[in-house]
Amino acid sequence: xxxxxxxxxxxxxxxxxxxxxxxxxxxxxxxxxxxxxxxxxxxxxxxxxxxxxxxxxxxxxxxxxxxxxxxxxxxxxxxxxxxxxxxxxxxxxxxxxxxxxxxxxxxxxxxxxxxxxxxxxxxxxxxxxxxxxxxxxxxxxxxxxxxxxxxxxxxxxxxxxxxxxxxxxxxxxxxxxxxxxxxxxxxxxxxxxxxxxxxxxxxxxxxxxxxxxxxxxxxxxxxxxxxxxxxxxxxxxxxxxxxxxxxxxxxxxxxxxxxxxxxxxxxxxxxxxxxxxxxxxxxxxxxxxxxxxxxxxxxxxxxxxxxxxxxxxxxxxxxxxxxxxxxxxxxxxxxxxxxxxxxxxxxxxxxxxxxxxxxxxxxxxxxxxxxxxxxxxxxxxxxxxxxxxxxxxxxxxxxxxxxxx
Amino acid sequence: xxxxxxxxxxxxxxxxxxxxxxxxxxxxxxxxxxxxxxxxxxxxxxxxxxxxxxxxxxxxxxxxxxxxxxxxxxxxxxxxxxxxxxxxxxxxxxxxxxxxxxxxxxxxxxxxxxxxxxxxxxxxxxxxxxxxxxxxxxxxxxxxxxxxxxxxxxxxxxxxxxxxxxxxxxxxxxxxxxxxxxxxxxxxxxxxxxxxxxxxxxxxxxxx
Lengths: 405, 208
Fold this sequence. Notes:
- The structure holds two protein chains of two kinds.
- Chain A is an alpha/beta fold.
- Chain A has two domains: about 5-185 and about 370-390, Glycogen Phosphorylase B (Rossmann fold), CATH 3.40.50; about 190-365, Rossmann fold.
- Chain A is about 45% helix and about 15% strand.
- Chain A contains 16 helices and 14 strands.
- Chain A has an eight-stranded mixed beta sheet, sandwiched between helices. In chain A, strands 11-10-9-12-13-14 form a six-stranded parallel beta sheet, with helices on both faces.
- In chain A, strand 5 (about 100-105), helix 3 (about 110-120) and strand 6 (about 120-125) form a beta-alpha-beta unit.
- In chain B, strand 5 (about 95-105), helix 3 (about 110-120) and strand 6 (about 120-125) form a beta-alpha-beta unit.
- By secondary structure, chain B is an alpha/beta fold.
- Chain B has a single domain (about 1-205), classed as Rossmann fold, CATH 3.40.50.
- Chain B has helices at about 20-30, 70-90, 110-120, 130-135, 140-155, 165-175, 190-205; strands at about 1-5, 35-40, 50-55, 55-60, 95-105, 120-125, 160, 180-185.
- Classes of the chains: A alpha/beta, B alpha/beta.
- Chains A and B meet through helix 2, helix 3 and helix 5 of A and helix 2, helix 3, helix 5 and helix 7 of B.
């Protein structure tokens, strides 16, 4: 069967990078293009980025994402969806597109409206759920988002999840039949991690020559467990470690305050946002990478650390437990400061052990190459198109206005 | 055959303000002129369709998401359901020429997208403006509603109002050309026929 022409809807796409969605949609789209699929991406605008451009073969449409004041984030998302749907209506009218691929609840309203107006099949990748992000839903705001996720899941022909953990969460939280869910992991492109770089300079920028470098990369939010890492730092004061904490998030101020209270200002460096190249360099020079997540649908940071060859200490929560294996590709710990300190100490004080973890993890990372992920995604597309083509639910020619007086 | 698709957030028995009575009267007037009408409206109910007479069909949309944090998120989510219902109608009735008549801002996004997707002629009927309902408000919610009103006024093929005063307000406040706005008072005789003439005119040529 011929590959369908696909329109992806995502609220972020490079250079607009908020979290993991942007690199995911970019890399998946790029890998699909390499396999001969025509891919359009409709996404939010970004200062300095073109309204339309072709990026590595991907046709990127950046829409006015609504820049006026809104009462809250969810209302902005609603207004953004209005604009997205309006512009994509024109894109779909003017292009031969066979399938809509939505990423998360943030584009649910636009995706579902477009599905019905054009009678195109809709596939949804659910990267995480409100229930999982918040540890349950506790107020009407969160319930509304959860309900929007349920609506998207109900309307999608098939659902893609990045891990068995996420699939189970969706199946249990949203009462979805197992047969509608496909597990397609995230992928990684190893090439940027192999590019020539002045690694000693990167190391010098962040740590003293005699310091070991322990790295955390991720949003500074509760679900990532970063506060457990901060609390673990006093337990490791004898090992002369510089903890590099990369990322932004609502917990940043609280973490800075806690680092001071613990007297670890000289040993913990919260860098804030860093560019991708610097982060890749840090992965390559790190003596250990800590991934202490409490909730993790997949854990793309693990793939990055594995590819770069950074020994991993992790909680193994959620999808991390599917990518990594205790004592083979990572050291698993409990989600508490004492256990994290134990794991870091184990990796830093056993060079042969950490080298074995590093090499095995690097080998394992090769199976997450984006080409393989695109092939799996195409499998989902083919199944949907086959069912769609056999059915009657299709657009039909609509009579153009012709009225007699 | 021309069938108006009137989209309103209220229609009896759901009555919020005067709009429900206006739309009900309009359907009666159009029916008197032997014109079949479909009303797409909303109500939380298990019933999705009602044929009230040979010339009047009611389609009820219920919100697929609950709860909501404001009337705005409620309306904007419901727009996708309006798009589904209207699209199903026009796919099912391919021999009919439809004209969309959207009442006020609530379903402007659906009107805009349906026009772009299907080439449907799109009329916006303005009953009142946010500036009148919340004079001088600088609140974010009001700002969003004004944004939706502006989108509807710009993207519609024609704007229907009931008074010259409303026409003046729109031409002054929203930079809409005068000849895009038609005044049809719902007090005079044969007002339904006058609106039907507007529908036909828009369907013929998409005046905008």
